[in-house]
Specification:
8-stranded mixed sheet; 8 strands; 43% helix; globular; binds nicotinamide-adenine-dinucleotide
Length: 305
């Protein structure tokens, strides 16, 4: 099979000074992309700054690749996109990867812990994406990756702030994929699990050793390639394995026995087991299906009332 290359493409990868982002940067650069290695260089809780994007840029250049460092915070995402335009004249790929953790049980979680985590993950992805969007629209081409987490999809104790922001990115991806469809802008989400400073005290040591971030990089790179046609996918990946995640909806039930019956708190209680029975649950691919379902339901409701 021919190698999937990125010659002529410019990629911006946020939070690429270490962990997963670094592996994405190394792989895309090795395959010919010009890369903006963005990293604020903060500690894992978002505090402080340093230039560790430089190490990644050096490694890329030493191997003959092309990269520049960018030290802006993703909350100033427009400056990161400007770095791509100023240095390389275009942008084709945006990987929203930067992230921090401020884990605390909810009672102890301050408003600052909530705001900072949302600022980096959700607002940061909005800022970079919004700035890149005008270029993607004009050139009828773009590849965007959001980074979610199992903590967002399933919830995780002590991570209410992070879980909320990470699931927010899934909604952002779904809606933006629709807006990008006719402009050849593909928007997808990675749900990674890998060894990094974010997981060093969470994953058991043997797992930590095995879960190399470079095992996830090919998945992200494939979804960033011009040949990749999928959009609105949420892809879980770890340990050289990948799978798709999506929501399903139960078949559900009317909340009354006879058409003339009222819907009461008690009837909801009676029918609850059927409401939450996931046998036969189905995935809804498009919001239009929900609208059609609503129209059908309205007809049934009016006929029964
Ligand atoms: P990491 O800490 O090694 O990488 C995150 C990088 O983002 C750091 O280098 C950090 O300096 C940078 N960063 C933080 N705030 C920034 C800001 N405001 N602007 C620019 N850069 C900033 O951790 P990682 O595990 O490689 O995480 C990468 C992404 O993957 C994150 O979004 C994280 O939430 C997500 N994620 C990771 C895992 C995992 O198992 N490692 C699981 C689920 C989700």
């Amino acid at each position: 099979m021919d190698l999937l290359r990125f010659d002529g493409r410019v990629a911006v990868i946020t939070g690429a000074g270490g962990g997963l982002g670094k592996e994405y940067a190394l792989l895309l650069a090795a395959r010919g992309a010009k890369v903006v290695v963005n990293d604020l260089g903060s500690a894992r809780d978002g505090v402080g700054k340093s230039n560790f994007a430089d190490t990644v840029v050096k490694e890329i250049r030493d191997k003959g690749g092309v990269a520049v460092a960018d030290y802006n915070s993703v909350v100033n995402g427009e400056k990161i996109i400007k770095t791509a335009i100023d240095n390389f004249g275009r942008i084709d790929i945006l990987i929203n990867n930067a992230g921090i953790l401020r884990d605390k049980s909810f009672l102890k979680l301050s408003e600052q812990d909530w705001d900072l985590v949302h600022a980096v993950h959700l607002k940061g992805a909005y800022k970079t994406t919004h700035a890149a969007w005008e270029y993607f629209r004009k050139q009828n081409y773009g590849r965007i990756i959001m980074t979610s987490s199992n903590a967002g999809i399933y919830g995780n104790f002590g991570q209410t702030n992070y879980s909320a922001a990470k699931l927010g990115l899934v909604g952002f991806c779904y809606a933006l994929a629709l807006e990008g469809a006719k402009y050849n802008i593909k928007v997808n989400t990675i749900v990674p699990t890998a060894a990094s400073r974010l997981t060093e005290d969470i994953l058991p040591p043997d797992m930590f050793q095995a879960m190399k971030p470079d095992l996830i990089a090919p998945v992200v790179a494939y979804m960033s390639h011009e040949s990749f046609d999928g959009t609105g996918h949420v892809i879980d990946s770890t340990l050289g394995y990948a799978s798709k995640v999506h929501f399903v909806k139960s078949v559900g039930t009317p909340l009354k026995k006879k058409p003339s019956d009222p819907v009461t708190i008690e009837s909801v209680k009676d029918f609850w087991p059927k409401v939450v029975d996931m046998n036969g649950a189905k995935h809804i691919d498009k919001i239009a299906e929900v609208s059609m379902d609503l129209a059908d339901r309205l007809q049934v409701f009016e006929n029964r009332a």
